[in-house]
Amino acid sequence: MFDREIYNKRREDLRKQLDSGIIVLPGNFESSMNYPDNTYRFRQDSNFLYFFGLDHTGYVGVMDLDEGKDYIFGDDVDMNDIIWMGNQPSVLEQAEKVGVENTAPVSQLEGFLKEALGKNRTLHLLPFYRGDNILFMSKMTGKTPEELEKMISLSLIKAVVNLRSYKGEEEIREIEYAMDIAYEMHTTVMRMVRPGILERELAGTIEGIAAAKGSGISFPVILTINGQTLHNHYHGNVLEKGRMVVTDAGAESLLHYASDITRTIPVSGRFDQRQKDIYEIVLKANTETIKAARPGITNKNLHLMASRIIANGLKEVGLMRGDIDQAVSLGANALFFPHGLGHMMGLDVHDMEGLGEDYVGYNDEVHRSKQFGMAFLRLAKKLEPGFVFTIEPGIYFIPALIEQWRREKKFAEFINYDKLDTFLDFGGIRIEDDVLVKEDDAVVLGRPIPKTVEEIETIMNA
Question: pLDDT-based confidence at 451, cuts 50/70/90?
Fold first, then answer.
């Protein structure tokens, strides 16, 4: 964990943004895999980690805004726990490490919260994403899940987003550590890829690297020769010459800060001309939008910039035609680039999206589009110093989507469907980097991971 002063300041900054009431931040509980004692890898709630810092199951953080007191409710281990787990620090000992003086057993939380509700005090809750926490808080408050839903605090959501959006130096160091792990993961794939190997051999190897170097993967590994499927977690294919491998993978640091990198490489070790033509378009969209990123520009405009680069490149190879600015304005390019340019990143790989994507990526100035493709842009608002976000353009040839648009004669004035027939077996390409917005510009975090054609071919054939 960080120094206690960091957690004290975070809670104090949160306290300044709400007038009164009680903030309740439940940590996560162990989650059983197939019987009670066989659990999934524990992952603490990110908001609890941000404000209370303790990576321990079954804790609840409480901030009484009116009294100016912070609490951690949690249970000390008993002899049965010690037999299986060994001696553990007491809740009080752990709470002191993050600057919290008041602790109590979890059994006392119910009385504490019901007494507060009985006095008509406001409980500030964040949105729930796990069923066990809903049931737990329902018991602690005496409220039904439907009633709890009505207690979700918009003011708390906005306050948390406002604080977590700006990464401190200590957070940047953690993300860069996660980037170091990602470098090893992705360069390992580049060295291992060859015809005849199974996707799962690659996916399992890099997941092992993430576990050995940090806290494991930051999201389920996407590694596939079928890159046209954006989030493809199936790893049962055999790599074949003529195909490409999309690897979208990242790690968590020991304090759970994420990295998120995508690289696309040829199974044969060298790009053929068709692959190279499409790859260079995506690479240009990646590098040019990174150069353009700076405080004050909206990520929506960066997305549109990437869209125009992709559409112009596809026009040059004969897959699009006509007025490219008009094509992008109408959304014709989304046949090939159906997702947004990127998302915020930090303790969550899609940072804070459990609080509501629109609260994180949009505001009163920038509203979500309903247009296909643009509607999936997770981050659209102006970039500010301290933001960490991804830039991940791509080009995908999705047979089912192509067939639907062709059948509907959709954007036929902009799309060369006849030539598109020769790309139905292509798959997809995505290139993703993690970017820190600074005072005047933006920088790619971490050790540079090979991404030019020459760099990739060099490492694959070393």
Answer: very high
